[in-house]
UniProtKB/TrEMBL annotation:
GO terms for molecular function: DNA-binding transcription factor activity; RNA binding. This is Transcription termination/antitermination protein NusA. It is found in: Cytoplasm. Residues 430-454 are annotated as: Disordered. Keywords: Cytoplasm, RNA-binding, Transcription, Transcription antitermination, Transcription regulation, Transcription termination. The lineage of its organism: Bacteria, Bacillati, Cyanobacteriota, Cyanophyceae, Oscillatoriophycideae.
Amino acid sequence: MTLLPLPGLGGMIEEISERHKLPQSSVQEALSEALLKGYERYRRSQDLDAQYTEDYFENFDVELDTDEEGFRVLSTKEIVEDVENADHQISLREVREVASEAQLGDHVVLDVTPEKSDFGRMAAIQTKQVLLQKLRDQQRKLIQEEFQDLEETVLNARVLRFERQSAIMAVSSGYSGQSRLEEVEAELPRREQLPNDSYRPNATFRVFLKKVREGPHRGPQLLVSRAAAGLVVYLFETEVPEIEDEVVRIVAVAREANPPSRHVGARTKIAVDTLERDVDPVGACIGARGSRIQAVVNELRGEKIDVIRWSPDPATYIANALSPARVSEVLLADSEERQAIVLVPENQLSLAIGKEGQNVRLAAHLTGWRIDIKDEAIYEPEPEPVAPIATDSEFSEFSHSNDNDSDPLPDAIAELDDESDIEEIPVDLTSDDEEVPVAFSADPQPIAPALEEE
């Protein structure tokens, strides 16, 4: 079989593997594809008038021989009676000269390697260009396979350099012994950095893997973050065994790692709950003397963290979310639109709102309610709507319509106005010999007794 020499093939594969941090099998695969593209270029240059379809060369393959330091081009052809395309077919008569047991429809692999002088300089240049592209494709493919299942998890990272305000970091998948990649570059954009972090070369951080980019693009394929809320959740899961054991659960997290103003520091609110009566979820997250939450704060470089108790009652949940401010009352103004009015004492007003509105903004994000803070001393609830009063003309029409109605009540009242209808009944209030008259009327309250001197 013909062999096109490639001096130092084994050493070249090892060097490319180390330089691009790829396994040698991936380098060999990329080199085979590049050489096949070079052969395709060679074939097209042999017959410029021929029309080759996109899948014309799919039955061709390149075999690398690292021992002999060279490669071969092989073609898989179908055995037919009459050959119509010599690149894809071979006659049965020709095959039976070598293998008498061959049958129609079988496939054979043939060596179609061109001579070294025929391969040409342009084909070699094409091979080199395609090899670089295939190596990049192999890197993206490996990264995709290695990190696709690690999205939205936390990785250890090391700072390499800065590019256009983005920190380029080296991360590893953590698959010890099984990883085909040692370290992979990841991008930490400016918006995903923490203001108190110091990204010096070789400084190590824990980062949240937000996305594994697909397709060709400039820059690293992995996008990581230090400002994601998922990083806080991971840190609490690591420090609080009750969360890992599912005794305490994290219900919601609201984080503002990069506030809109530089005068406001980073802050996070986290709502926790438990189904165990004997467990305090807030106390479990804080730890003895604040040891657990302090470990999270140290990792986030001093970020303020409020741990609050979740409640199914919206009013209670909103009041807890505004911690550390003390809330007097929560009015659910519109449950459908999720709008609430919170009344606080005057000395708690600024604390409830927070610096530049940060506290109430995080509470609204945490609860999903639109919160309006009011001073309880000056708050006046909106008056309830009053039924409309009838006008003079409407009242006249109503009176006229009832003129002909028979109503016995006015007639009875008119009869009672006559003094002759009042009956005096003697009642003994003093002694057996003295009688005091008491008057009664239609009014259920008795009229005061009239006493007369004898």
